Amino acid sequence: MDTTKVLKRPVFLRLFGLCATGQPKDKTSWRIGEGTVEVDLTRLPELQQPERAVRLEDNAAGIRVLLVKGPDGSFHAYRNECLHGKRRMDPVPGAETLQCCSVGHTTYDYDGNPLTNDLDGQLNVYTVEQRDDALTIKLD
Ligand code: FES
Fold first, then answer.
1. Fold of 11-138
2. Of the candidates 27, 28, 29, 71, the residue with the CA atom closest to the CA atom of residue 49
3. 37 CA to centre of ligand 1 in angstroms
4. Taking the model in full, what pTM does it have?
5. Which of 59, 98, 112, 124 is deepest in the core (most CB within 10 A)?
């Protein structure tokens, strides 16, 4: 029996691939560096609590990052594309997992390994360095 915790969401949101995680309200809370994304946590109230996330996206620059604050307060960043069909993901509170927003809701551990749906490969996990209230996400 599959005991994977599923983020409960209306099916029409899953059909249209609409994720629960939003973009930062303060657009100045992050910027693109040289092969990095630089984040100012003082401008990101969305990440004050653990098990929350934001989407950092810039289509022109090809940036599509999911930044997650884990239950222990550590930060995790991913290329925000499900291995199955490239839809976006959300953190699942209480499970330390990420879950695709689609109907298939492929679930991943924080290391990017798929736990459901028998997919090959791993999410692109970015290194996150923290210095006080500043994060550097390395996009390599
Ligand atoms: S896009 Fe199909 S499960 Fe993620």
1. Rieske Iron-sulfur Protein (2.102.10)
2. 71
3. 25
4. 0.95
5. 98
Å from CA of 117 to ligand 1 middle: 9
Decide: 82 in ligand 1 pocket, CB within 6 A.
yes
Residue 127 pLDDT > 70? yes
Domain residue ranges of the chain, discontinuous segments joined by +:
11-138
Give the position of tokens 């976006």: 88
34 CA to centre of ligand 1 in angstroms? 30
Ligand 1: residue whose CA is nearest its atom 1: 85
